Amino acid sequence: MIIEDVRYRIVFDSRGNETVECEIEAGEVIGRAIAPSGASTGSEEAIVADPYKIDEIEEKISKGIVGMSVFDQFSVDEALREIDGTENFSSIGGNFAISASLATAKAAAEILGVPLYAYVGGLVNEIPYPLGNVIGGGAHAEDSTNIQEFLVIPVGASDFFEAQRTNAMIHKAIKQEFKKRGIFAAKGDEGAWAAQISDEQAFEILEAAIAKVEDEMDVEVRIGLDVAATELWNGERYVYKDKKLSTEEQITYIAELIDKHNLLYVEDPLHENDFEGFAELTKQVKCMVCGDDIFVTNPRRIKKGIEIGAANTVLIKPNQVGTLSDTIKAVKLSKDNGYEIVVSHRSGETEDETIAHLSVAFNATLIKTGVVGGERLAKLNELVRIEEYMDSPTMVKIRRLSG
Question: In terms of pLDDT, which residue wins out, 42 or 157?
């Protein structure tokens, strides 16, 4: 079955910004995918092209991939790279490329009558745990915490529905904890609560909410952080509201937080080019040390990290690298070298549910896609459906759970 037509349209993301949706037509089927966008971005991510260049870019991509087999994902993705001609999609844009790439896979899966997760991943029956952002600051909310995301992982949940229900209850309980303390809180970019509080207050409020929900649900919950340290780094030090830390002091500070709060997961604890700092912290601690900005889903950067033991977990965001094939390469390289996988949304999201399927296809440990908000629930509810559709589904085993 060949690709007969490629169509783009401009649509909107959760921040009200324009983004692009691609439709790939093959026979009687249309595959559709929308490109998300990030607020905290790595400097080596695929470039985002102006959505209003839609006519020019649509023509280029159509000429390059119409007539190709919809089932030959690798060749379609190679063609997208050739059409662009740059390392980071600075010509046609990673947003135009990833939406075409994912729409191709979705069309192929539909033609075969199988779910996307099975088309990409084969026979799989494990579901990732939801990594839920419940208190936000940093680049996602003004006048809030230094740390960008305070996250929860319901590790004691027996199935995905119970896991997401637990996260949702914690989100509600946090609102009540703010209310009890007379603190005004609003929702940030990803639906997490944001308020004028310190990092220490955020931990106190979060731990109180978790204790309440653990008692009610009888489900163990662990805490994670996205430090987004590149946003704190000024070229010499990590600048917090109340302190400035050297690299060595930052490593010590993060290690102390991990120990004090029994953290399971820490993302981007050092800036995006500090491979050595990541390696040093990873040696010192036993939790999941995850690289986002440092790796940007790029096999070349992941390989560099593997060589020196920087991190032990890779955040996977397909739009960072621009094609499904390159995303699969990044996942395979990571897993072959003992790294865990976390599939992630972006802060500027849409109703597109594709990453829910990819998290299952890649046998990811966690899926990071918020807790509330329609664009987040599109993925979470899709995982509820996937779990229901599967024969004998189980929750994935978290290797570093015991520390």
Answer: 157
